[in-house]
Design goal:
The complex is a heterodimer of chains A (about 190) and B (about 775). With about 190 residues, chain A is an alpha+beta fold. Chain A has four helices and eleven strands, in the order H-E-E-E-E-E-E-H-H-E-E-H-E-E-E. Chain A has a single domain, classed as Lipoprotein localisation LolA/LolB/LppX (outer membrane lipoprotein receptor (LolB), chain A, Clam), CATH 2.50.20. In chain B, a hairpin with a 2-residue loop joins strand 4 and strand 5. Classes of the chains: A alpha+beta (about 190), B alpha+beta (about 775). Chains A and B meet through strand 2 of A and helix 6 of B.
Chain lengths: ~190, ~775
């Protein structure tokens, strides 16, 4: 092979790889930008927890609501009502007949990492996600899968992998794989505003 | 000869007795002496809680400077040192070890601690419904955390126990130690072994903390130690009071001695002049020691004013005797003066402040002793021919000044009337109703205390249910009975929650009943098998539960010792207060979310309906505000009464209403003038100012009395001698109270800033208002 051609081939290949890399990088940024355009989203959810000592999955369902920039509400309706509202660094948990609990997320770094995985994704906040997780994106803009892997052992001792699946700007499934082998699946269905 | 020796011998014997008493006197400086003595049991409890309760034994520690990691390291090192120090019985800083011990305490002892443990709960049906509920909880957001508990605690007892404490705020965690909300301070909570009222031991404990902090190796240079709490404040105010005693005593002595030397120019007369003062001080200290068992530092500091008051007696005696004024008339005037002073000071005796009562006893005993010494001892000791420095020159100047002053009468009347109108126009705004207005704690110390307390998330002790019982077992049983009523209120949404000592350490009776309710292994397995028939859990997964229940059946009942090192220990110690004759139980209540107030009458009714007796629900904020208001009202009444008594004494002695009115008019001017002056300076009046005004009247009448006595008889020269003796006496009183005004302790500075200017105003007004004296007619 002539050296020029070789150089050309190298150049083409590097360029090609660079383009592929850029495409992937661009895609993550693009996904984030697309997600960031969700100012106010409402959805219903069904969550299944597969817990080792219990023979069948434990199921719950309710509503999710995200309001930009940082408010996430999860209202579980079945089997037991519970509301969880995250706004800024404050997490408020309410259950009927129980005292309202208000927690500062800064005091609970693990819980913060958990909820930040969902809120950061819905908000398209890449830098918030990257503080705690390594991000990998698969699929296409049409149907994508974002994998979050904890960077620090304090977190990875609890959860090993979070996978978030979506179609264009909408999240439709969130899976948590826990370190002890248990896992949970949450199916999200967007509610179209009337 | 005997007539001279007998008083001298009696006097010396009395002095010796006083010294013997003083040698055994305990000097104290706690804060509560200047807290009102509560008129009812609820309020008394407040004060006892402050003085003896665990609250007085807590020291809040903050560490500033460096970075978060350094502060957390210092916090851990400091805590480790203090835990090894027997002076402290508890140290909390949010370290993982303590948190883990807390969780372990509640988890390990859940079957003795949980009120839900009954025989029914361990039947097949009871187990089934409890486990169903736990499975439901798994579906919630906390499910993935709760699942770890399930194999050992399928009935959810641990969760039930911990839920009792939700709503209790804790400091945030930063780098493995407690930190303030902004993260700029590491926080520790230290509990001393010594009683809060033992100020010496508290001072030593604070030194231990400082030394331990200084010893921490490699500590960043810019790190600082902050401490607050009742004991820190007690120690600081004691130091401040002790500093004041020395300073004030030195100042007044220098002032009075300087003044007397200038006038007498005779060391012998100076020494004689100080004899009534010294006798008064000794008698005062001895009398307080005998009636209270101790003497407060503030009483001693206040003693400097006695110097100013009692030195007057010898001043009058020497100057007027030297002028040849007849003894009998002189003693009569002075006796009346002493009576008026006693009337003023005796009001302090009935005051609700124990500290003020001490001041009253001290002043009364001191004045009586000083007056008796001046009357019976001094005349025997002073030279037959009293040769004073010729005061004719200054006397004439004073006389001229006084005669000029009389022309100012219209001006004075105008000023007093307008000042009076101005005060009346201000109405209720002249009174200061803040409880801490009298506290010797500086605003900076108070601010630090509030900020540490808030950051510490110390329970807001506004609402408290309290009861007492003969011993701690009975107290815990009563707390459990109360807990049942309160829990119903929580479930009805009337309360957000409550913290009872029985939640940390149930009574032996309750623990024994719970232990007895636990089934044996065979029964438990049978019930569990039946309970799990329709549930998605295999019995084999709950082996941990079966063995834990069996272990609990063998478990010894919990006592205070089992709590050692956990934060539950602090909970029990602060809420279960061992007193001399009984045990006090405090149950802090939390108002429902979004609501600041608790409906106390409704709660009282619920407690009453449950047949519980002797439970008091207190709103501490309301109690302390009303406490102070009621004392202000009491002081108004007492001070008014005291002034009336002084007026009646004058009326009785002078036997003429116009003369009595003329003798009191300058006092009224002084009271109005000094009140207006204080208000002009932006100072609102406290109880102490009010009492200061009474002292203005009690001390000021000396001058008006002598004016009155002087204006009716005597030669112009004698007249002038009387005037100069009054001026000198007044200067000593103004000086010694004025010195008090410089004190850093509010109680003293309030009195000083009222009485110092007040007595001076009394003299000036007396001079301005004095009737045209015969001296004028014969003036040369």
């Amino acid at each position: 092979m002539r050296p020029d051609l070789f150089r050309l081939a190298i150049a083409v290949l590097t360029g090609l790889f660079a383009t592929i890399g850029q495409a992937a990088e661009w895609q993550l940024n693009d996904l984030m930008q697309q997600l960031a355009q969700n100012r106010d989203g409402r959805a219903t959810f069904v969550e299944k927890k597969y817990i080792g000592i219990v023979d069948k999955p434990v199921e719950s369902s309710g509503e999710l609501r995200f309001t930009a920039p940082d408010k996430l509400e999860k209202r579980t309706l079945k089997p037991k009502a519970e509301s969880l509202v995250l706004e800024g660094q404050r997490l408020i948990i309410e259950r009927p007949g129980k005292t309202r609990m208000s927690l500062n997320l800064q005091d609970y770094p693990e819980a913060a990492a958990f909820v930040e995985s969902i809120r950061g994704t819905l908000a398209g906040d890449k830098s918030a996600l990257e503080k705690v997780y390594r991000l990998t994106l698969h699929g296409s803009a049409e149907k994508w899968q974002l994998i979050l892997q904890p960077q620090y052992s304090r977190m990875s001792d609890i959860v090993t992998r979070i996978s978030i699946n979506g179609v264009r700007g909408d999240v439709n499934r969130i899976d948590f794989d826990l370190a002890d082998g248990d896992r949970s699946e949450m199916f999200v269905t967007k509610v179209v505003a009337q | 000869m005997n007539r001279r020796l007998l008083p001298l011998a009696l006097w010396l014997a009395a002095l010796a007795a006083c010294i013997a008493v003083i040698a055994h006197t305990r000097f104290v400086a706690d804060l509560t002496a200047f807290m009102p003595r509560a008129p009812n049991a609820r309020q008394q409890m407040l004060i006892e809680q402050l003085r003896d309760g665990i609250i007085a034994r807590l020291i809040m520690v903050g560490i500033e400077g460096g970075d978060a990691a350094e502060r957390a390291r210092i916090s851990r090192e400091l805590a480790a040192q203090l835990r090894a120090d027997p002076a402290f019985i508890g140290v909390q800083n949010g370290e993982a070890a303590t948190e883990a011990r807390d969780r372990a305490y509640f988890f390990d002892n859940r079957y003795l601690l949980s009120p839900a443990v009954t025989a029914e709960r361990f039947s097949a049906e009871g187990l089934q419904s409890a486990i169903e509920r736990s499975l439901e909880a798994l579906s919630g957001n906390a499910g993935l955390m709760l699942k770890k508990l399930l194999p050992h605690d399928p009935t959810g007892e641990t969760l039930n126990l911990l839920e009792q404490f939700t709503g209790d705020s804790h400091p945030r965690q930063l780098e493995g130690a407690w930190a303030s909300r902004d993260g700029q301070r590491a926080l520790l909570l230290v509990q001393t072994g010594a009683e809060g009222s033992d100020t010496d031991a508290q001072a030593a404990a604070l030194e231990h903390i400082r030394a331990a902090f200084d010893r921490i190796p490699g500590r960043a240079a810019d790190t600082r130690l902050l401490m607050s709490g009742t004991s820190v404040m007690s120690v600081a105010s004691r130091e401040r009071i002790q500093g004041d005693i020395h300073r004030l005593a030195l100042f007044s002595t220098v002032l009075v001695v300087g003044l007397l030397l200038t006038i007498y120019r005779s060391p012998r007369l100076l020494l004689l002049g100080l004899l009534p003062v010294a006798s008064g001080v000794l008698a005062g200290v001895a009398a307080v020691s005998l009636s209270f068992g101790n003497i407060h530092g503030l009483t001693l500091a206040f003693g400097s004013t006695l110097i100013g008051e009692s030195v007057d007696y010898s001043i009058y005696l020497f100057i007027q005797r030297a002028a040849g004024i007849e003894g009998r008339r002189f003693w009569r005037t002075m006796g009346l003066g002493v009576l008026c002073s006693l009337a003023g000071f005796s009001v302090l005796l009935v005051s609700g402040f124990p500290g003020l009562a001490q001041l009253g006893v001290y002043s009364i005993a001191g004045l009586v002793a000083a007056a008796l010494t001046a009357r019976f001892v001094l005349p025997g000791l002073m030279p037959q021919q009293l040769k004073l420095r010729d005061l004719a020159g200054p006397a004439r100047q004073v006389d001229r000044a006084f005669r000029f002053a009389r022309r100012l009468r219209p001006l004075l009347l105008l000023a007093v009337v307008s000042a009076g109108a101005w005060i009346a126009w201000q109405g209720d705004a002249v009174w200061n109703r803040q409880l801490n207005a009298l506290s010797p704690v500086t605003p900076a110390e108070q601010a630090l205390d509030i900020s540490l307390r808030n950051e510490m998330g110390a329970p807001d002790m506004r609402y408290i249910a309290a009861l007492s019982a003969p011993d701690s077992e009975a107290a815990l049983q009563a707390a459990e009975a109360l807990g049942v009523v309160l829990q119903a209120q929580v479930e009805a949404g009337k309360l957000a929650g409550f913290t009872s000592p029985a939640q940390f350490l149930p009574s032996q009776q309750a623990q024994a009943a719970r232990r007895a309710a636990l089934p044996d292994e065979a029964t438990l397995r049978a019930n569990l098998g039946q309970a799990l028939r329709d549930l998605p859990i295999q019995p084999a997964r709950l082996e941990g539960f079966v063995s834990d229940v069996q272990n609990s059946r063998q478990h010894a009942l919990l006592t205070r010792q089992d709590l050692a090192g956990s934060s539950a220990a602090l909970g029990v110690d602060s809420l279960l207060v061992q007193r001399a004759r009984d045990v006090l139980v405090l149950v802090p209540l939390r108002a429902p979310a979004g609501q600041e107030l608790i409906d106390i009458p409704a709660l009282d009714a619920a407690i009453h309906a449950a047949g519980l007796k002797g439970v008091t629900v207190l709103d501490i904020l309301e109690e302390s505000t009303s406490l102070f208001s009621s004392y202000l009202n009491e002081a108004k009444l007492l001070v008014g009464g005291g002034m009336l008594v002084i007026f009646l004494l004058l009326l009785f002695a002078l036997r003429s209403l116009p003369r009595a009115l003329r003798a009191t008019a300058p006092l009224a001017c002084a009271v109005i003038g000094v009140t207006a002056g204080l208000l002009l300076c932006g100072i609102t009046l406290t109880i102490l100012h009010l009492i200061g005004l009474l002292l203005v009247v009690a001390i000021g009448r000396n001058y008006t009395l002598f004016f009155d006595a002087g204006s009716h008889t005597g030669s112009p020269a004698q007249q002038r001698q009387v005037q100069i003796s009054i001026v000198v006496a007044n200067l000593t009183a103004v000086g010694s109270f004025g010195v008090l005004a410089l004190s850093e302790v509010p109680v003293l500075s309030y009195l000083g800033s009222t009485v110092g200017p007040g007595t001076f105003l009394a003299l000036v007004s007396a001079a301005i208002l004095a009737s045209k004296a015969p001296a004028d007619a014969h003036a040369d």
